[in-house]
Amino acid sequence: MEIPFSTEEFLGIFKKYNTAIWPGQVFLYLLALTAIILIFRKTHFSSWVITIILSFLWLWMGVIYHLMYFTEINNAAYLFASVFIFQAILLLYLGVLRKKISFQFRTGFYGFAGAFFIFFALILYPIISSELGHVYPYAPTFGLPCPTTIFTLGILMWTDKKTPLIIYLIPLGWVMIGFLAVFSLGMSEDFGLLIAGIFTISKIVVSQINKNKKILSPRYYEKS
Predict the structure, then answer these.
(1) pTM of the model
(2) Is the N-terminal amide bond of 4 cis, ω within 30° of 0?
């Protein structure tokens, strides 16, 4: 798949975006930290607020980044924007209106995996990016699609009830699209996208297997 823009043009969009929205990056980090705190200090409304934060981040990426900036070099950004906006609406619908998404940190493999991906998105990603020569403002800061998708998948590792599978489709779709940047644009920091995607798929598969085992268990029918 041929990308219709150069690495220089791609990084130039980051510069325009980062320069224009400053100090918006600080606000986006504060939203992320709020979501993390609410997971550890769970209240009756914390899952709603976390879902609203995730929804806002996807709306931000769709409108502010894709529509206002990325469309300058890539017409596909109009499609990306609509998909990201749809994800924002989906999060609100399932998490706030239908109350199908609930968050709580649990120890265990996927709990710590989620913590790692959140740490990667907020801390390691910008460090790796800088080491690779993508220095601010020519850097994909938090609030842009790739680090924010990694953050989202990390947060979704901390759901404490069966989350509707549809909520994963768009983030996992962006894993495949964003990962192209590793090879085509030299954005090696986006390798974390693939790892987060693999762990997320693994979690979904394990959850489905455990669900099927539960259904097949005689105790399941006794309780029914």
Answers:
(1) 0.93
(2) no
